[in-house]
Records
---
Amino acid sequence: MNEKRAGMMNVSCFLEPSVEVMQSFIDAQVSPRTIKLMTMAPELEGSLPVIKLCKQEGVQINIGHSDATFEEIAELKEYGLGGVTHMFSGMRGFHHRELGVAGAALHFDDLYCEFAKQTGWTVKPEAFAMAYKLKGPDRIIMTTDNGALALAEKERYHYTRKETLIPNGDFITLRHDDGSEITYNRTNYEEIKDIELSYIGSIRNLIKNVRPSIHDIIKITALNCARYLGIEDRKGSIELGKDADLLVVDDHFNLKATYCMGVLSYMEDDNV
């Protein structure tokens, strides 16, 4: 990743592109092609051999935390760049004379735009709606992220949330920029579960702002992801012979039950 576009990431954990390091990850796999996806800044020196190796080994490459120009992406795309991580975040933005990573993602029809939680903080609803109009439901992937905010070990400032996280043993205090505070017991899941927006809560926000059809929601949350990672043969849709990983939701997209490989793993207290 490029330190210029680190965002909330810890730059001390960044690795320079290295075929040797990537090969060591591949060799460490217990089963072949376990690694499905990697984010990288393709403009960094040494990226091209890594991109080629990943394509050979079935690892999809996302452009992310990248300062790449439109021209750099256009040149490298054919070697195995499939999409972008967290569209609009941690990347060179759009300018009418230098389209950057964001512009390249919108311009090239075959690049997927992956979006994280739709909180309205990192990506404004209007920005998502614009990308949705240009890319359509076949090239949008809805994912999530988790900053483990409730488990912060050191005081830190979250610039998009405009609040400071202050850990204190089993408790954590969120101090907002206006001076207001709220303290949570970190050992109580019911208290901390809503510190970060849930995935299905993100989808409800998306539905409110963009109003996609149920079929398009299935595409951007399941089918597109499976196609992108090359596992459409067993994931992404409800078909005979596929893994029965299912979410049961009501008309308002409240989660009622979860099945993993056909086995009930969660059910809300009331009847489904």
---
Amino acid sequence: MATVDHAMQSGHAADEPMGEEGYRRRDFLSIAAVSFAGVGAAGVVVPLVSQMAPSADVLAQSSTEVDLSAIAPGQAIKSQFRKQPLFVRNLTPEEIAEADKVPVSSLRDPQTLAQRTQEGKKNWLITLGVCTHLGCVPLGAGEGENRGPFGGYFCPCHGSAYDTAGRIRQGPAPKNLQVPPYKFTSPTTVVVG
């Protein structure tokens, strides 16, 4: 009763709206509460998101360094990049000429050798060793392995044949062997990834 009497004495009815000052205080409290909740939510979300980032050992595996000095012309080696086989091939001048004379328009996945290698390093072909048909590992990177009718790589699973530029020439594979991102850090070292 005292509250109602007080409101009556001050000239305001109990159900009349407050003055402008009352709204400002309520708005301030609402904004402050939402801001406080936002800061609290950020305090919870940031650690959750950061714990999903890859750890240092995973980041270290995201690139592969390959020493090219022991790869003779005409030879290919197998390495590994992100748990997938990696083929590094040192093409001979004859293999480069053979790849260059193939009409690009005759290819299923048209690419020149120059598009698949880096400028000034046309002899170094670096591809993932995964057939683009169903993911088998083609032969041709190891010593004495079947390189298929085009002298590149041959997939024993379903008969896809790639040329010396890693381009699909025969069989069910729809695309060329994938060229991963790489850069030369020295004349004899390449970093893939």
